Automatic annotation (TrEMBL):
Residues 48-114 form the HMA domain. InterPro entries: HMA_dom, HMA_dom_sf. GO terms for molecular function: metal ion binding. This is Copper chaperone CopZ. It comes from Ekhidna lutea. It holds the Pfam family HMA. It comes from the Bacteria.
Length: 151
């Protein structure tokens, strides 16, 4: 058997059944992982809209920082962080702000907001207890996209 025959013997075409099943399974897994971290859409509530935003907050100091900062954000009526699941629930007036603006504000305070990466300078200014690994917490492993000017 020459070298070409040996190479062809190990060659599996991309369109073969087993490869497609493997690719399909991989694509399905990627799709499921991506959707589990996707941004939740705002829902209408009495007097405004409510959005739930996944954050990288880990302690009471983070909770106080985020809730106080968002209290001064134009259009935000209420912000409450649940530290158990790190979800910040924000009720806002839709004519004054929107969910993406709120997410960007969270990143400017130094925290991840859904798939938006935190601002590194703001993160550097957070207290040590609010940084990755503090309190024995694992470093967040969420698929993040870099911030851009358009949100």
């Amino acid at each position: 058997m020459n070298n070409t025959q040996k190479q062809n013997q190990n060659f599996i075409p991309l369109w073969s059944g087993s490869t497609l099943r493997g690719l399909g399974g991989g694509l399905l897994m990627i799709s499921l992982l991506t959707s589990s971290f996707s941004q939740k859409e705002p829902v209408e509530v009495d007097g405004g809209f409510k959005v739930e935003i996944q954050t990288s907050a880990i302690c009471e100091m983070c909770k106080n920082t985020l809730e106080k900062d968002l209290a001064f954000e134009k259009g935000v009526k209420e912000a409450t962080l649940n530290l158990d699941d790190k979800v910040l629930t924000v009720v806002y007036h839709p004519k004054r702000t929107d969910a993406q603006t709120i997410r960007r504000r969270i990143t400017l305070v130094g925290y991840h907001a859904d798939t938006l990466a935190r601002d590194s300078k703001a993160y550097d200014n957070l207290p040590m207890c609010c940084k990755d690994g503090a309190h024995g917490t694992p470093i967040p492993q969420v698929p993040l996209k870099a911030k851009d000017d358009n949100g």
